[in-house]
Specification:
Layout: H1 7-29, H2 34-47, H3 52-64, H4 68-87, H5 93-112, H6 116-135, H7 138-142, H8 145-158, H9 161-178
Helix pairs in contact: 1-2, 2-3, 3-4, 3-5, 4-5, 5-6, 6-9
């Protein structure tokens, strides 16, 4: 039986999508096959299209097999999904992290395609995201005490803000040199 609110249907699709996601992780981490991983990540995404982690993995898998146009398409989906949250100033630390990583991935694709102005925009977006996290005491709104410090340190390790700033300088040099 499916209840009026569709909760059983949601549980079925969410549970199935998690299985496909875990299969994708297996092929990514154990088999080291981005082709197969991408297949399972895509199936997870189709069952739960609003799950930004699934979308990110689909995009990343496409990028790993050098299908940059398809990767861009899925990274753009993440940016569009997150946009309303950013405007409302309601992004969780995890969503902020994925926004940062997505902006960096789009920057890298743009650099490979020699789209320097778009690369600069994405670089600036990643930096803005990081500064928003730091300056607004964002993490402290979700976590307290030692846990907040652990989260901050973990994000600093995973999100290469200094490298992003250096890359912005490099992109700006290229733009000044050629444009």
């Amino acid at each position: 039986n499916i209840s009026d609110d569709g909760s059983l249907m949601w549980y079925y699709f969410w549970g199935s999508s998690r299985v496909y996601y875990k299969m994708g992780r297996y092929y990514e981490k154990i088999e080291e096959s981005w082709q197969k991983a991408g297949h399972y990540y895509t199936r997870a995404y189709h069952l739960a299209p609003s799950n930004y982690r699934f979308v990110y993995k689909v995009a990343f898998a496409y990028e790993m097999v050098r299908k940059d146009r398809m990767a861009e398409k899925y990274y753009d989906i993440i940016m569009r999904q997150m946009e309303p949250y950013g405007e409302e100033n309601y992004l969780s630390p995890s969503k902020c992290e994925y926004m940062f990583k997505t902006a960096r991935r789009l920057m890298n694709i743009s650099l490979r395609q020699q789209q320097y102005f778009y690369a600069k925009v994405m670089c600036l977006r990643a930096i803005d995201m990081w500064e928003g996290i730091s300056e607004n005491k964002f993490i402290e709104r979700f976590y307290t005490g030692p846990e907040a410090e652990e989260i901050k340190e973990g994000m600093q390790k995973r999100l290469p803000i200094e490298r992003t700033r250096e890359e912005l300088e490099d992109v700006e040099k290229i733009i000044r040199m050629y444009f």
